[in-house]
TrEMBL record:
This is CopG family transcriptional regulator. GO terms for biological process: regulation of DNA-templated transcription. InterPro entries: Arc_rbn_hlx_hlx (IPR013321), Ribbon_hlx_hlx (IPR010985). Coiled coil: none annotated.
Length: 94
């Protein structure tokens, strides 16, 4: 059995009207649209936070080791990948 929590969201009347209109067009309930929108927002923000944490860890690793690739090296590698070539990433150096 799914457990749900009732929550109240205060919003401007104009936004509520837009949600109701869209729900009618989509043949869904306003509640269903709002749950879908909140789920999409939370997923996007979780992914953004995971990327931020990964970047912070990579920066910390760089500070500890000094290992890096230049922007030119990274750009050249990404261009190869974009062209459909399966190439190894450039080697890190100090």
């Amino acid at each position: 059995m799914k457990t749900t929590i009732n929550a109240s969201v205060k919003m401007p009347p104009a936004l509520h009207a837009r949600i109701v209109s869209l729900a009618e067009t989509r043949k869904r309930t306003p509640h269903a649209l709002m749950v879908q929108a909140i789920e999409a927002f939370v997923l996007r923000e979780e992914q953004r936070e995971a990327l931020r944490q990964e970047a912070m860890a990579a920066h910390e690793d760089f500070l500890l080791t000094g290992l890096h690739v230049t922007a030119k090296e990274a750009d050249a590698w990404l261009a190869e990948l974009e062209a459909g070539k399966d190439v190894e990433p450039p080697k890190c150096h100090v």
